[in-house]
Structure formats: C-alpha cells, structure tokens
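Re: [ENG-882] Designed sequences occasionally contain unexpected residues at chain ends

Forwarding the minimal case from QA. Structure tokens:
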C-alpha cells in the first residue's frame, strides 16, 4: 500500500458548505474514502512552510505528493532528497513551477498535472476586468466613493470588437 500526502488550502466555512471545493483541507479532493477503503494512507495538511512543517515531516515517507497551484508545497531538491519513497508529484491544476523538475528527473520521480481546469474562464474574466475598468471601480467603492464618469471613461465595451488571446502553452494552443 502507499502513502499519499496532499498539501491543500484551508477552505473554512465555504468548504464545509460547498463540497465541490475539492482542493481544500476539509474536502480532501474527495479522495479519502477511496484511498482508505483500498488500504492506503492519506495525509492532508495545509502546513507547508519551513523545515518543521507537517509537509516536510510527512513527505519523508510519502509515495505520492499532491499539491495545488494556489497553495503549492515547494518541492525543492532538498525536499526531494528527504523524500526517500516519492514516486509521483501531482499538481491538482495547471503548473509545476513549484517543483524542481531537474531534481525530480534525477531522482526518477514523475511530475504530473491534472489540467484542463479553469484557465479559459480565468482568461475571459481577466479580459472583462480590464476592459470594464473593474479594479479602479472596486477600489473607489471600497474607499467609500463612487464617481461613475471617470470609471466609465476608461472602460470599453466588447460589443462589435474582435477579442483574441495568444497562448504559448498546451491549453493556450487549443
């Protein structure tokens, strides 16, 4: 049997109310019943900072590490040197820049991503935030003001325009 270590983020009340927030400590990627019913050990933590963190203690004998791009555990060469059993490092999302890829290659550890996630939604949201001048409007409201004219003057409508994105990665090329 294997030991799976998941470094996730704390979701608090929102995660308890919404089980679809899988990347939280509370909802554990929905994996605990399956892993434990099949005899595996499953450790979940959000404590990832420093040499005395739960992550550093548990990774020493973990076979599989799961982390997220929003709350990544930094998998350095030093961490990989300590992780004597590690065979697989999975990012539950897009991006592996928190993993020392050369060190993983040297140690024959597979680094994988569970992608196809919400990158496109994020791009569309960012386009809308920028074109509609959302950030300055939000900052104005937060400070107690609301002057529509300066916000509207700097905003743009997308109606009648062609909008495109350029992506160099796997998702951006689709």
């Amino acid at each position: 049997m294997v030991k799976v270590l998941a470094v996730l983020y704390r979701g608090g009340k929102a995660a308890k109310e919404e089980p679809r927030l899988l990347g939280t400590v509370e909802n554990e990627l929905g994996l605990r019943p399956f892993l434990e019913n099949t005899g595996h050990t499953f450790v979940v933590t959000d404590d990832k900072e420093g040499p005395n963190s739960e992550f550093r203690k548990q990774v020493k004998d973990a076979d599989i590490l799961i982390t997220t791009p929003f709350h990544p555990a930094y998998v350095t060469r030093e961490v990989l040197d300590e992780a004597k059993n590690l065979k697989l490092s999975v990012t539950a999302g897009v991006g592996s820049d928190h993993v020392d890829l050369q060190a993983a290659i040297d140690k024959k550890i597979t680094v994988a991503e569970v992608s196809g996630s919400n990158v496109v939604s994020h791009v569309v949201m960012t386009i809308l935030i920028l074109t509609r001048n959302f950030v300055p409007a939000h900052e104005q409201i937060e400070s107690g003001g609301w002057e529509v004219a300066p916000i509207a003057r700097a905003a743009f409508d997308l109606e009648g325009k062609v909008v495109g994105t350029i992506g160099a990665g796997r998702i951006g090329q689709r």
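QA comment: On inspection the terminal residues look reasonable. The mean pLDDT is 88. Proposing we downgrade this to a documentation issue.
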